[in-house]
Amino acid sequence: MTELSDDVIAFLTEGTRTAKLGFVAADGRPLVAPVWFIVDGQELVFNTGKDTAKGRALARDPRLVVCVDDERPPYSFVQIQGIATLGEDPADLLDTATRIGGRYMGADRAEEFGRRNGVPGELVVRVTPTKVIKAFNLAD
User: What is the pTM of this model?
Assistant: First the structure.
């Protein structure tokens, strides 16, 4: 499966689950970092600094993997392997940072987080899935 099905989108957008982003460092080491995200159509979207390990790694090699899980019984997860597209458009940065801030910090703080994170030096990372693996209710 290479698309985000309705059940996958429902899982990804429920609550404030944090994605675990897997990427490769310049020296070949695999790294994992948590990211806040939103789903925008068929893409998973997050922001990161251009000069962070994530930003530098994705500029060098756009391949990545993201895993989002529910750590409560009966346990579920979605893994998305994909290709990152990086953007620096100021309007897109502000929009995505505001939407992400609203999701994780609440609507009353969305604009605050948008202004803080939607600034020059930040990137909008759009993940186009190449493979989607889902497993719901594993302990049932």
Answer: 0.96
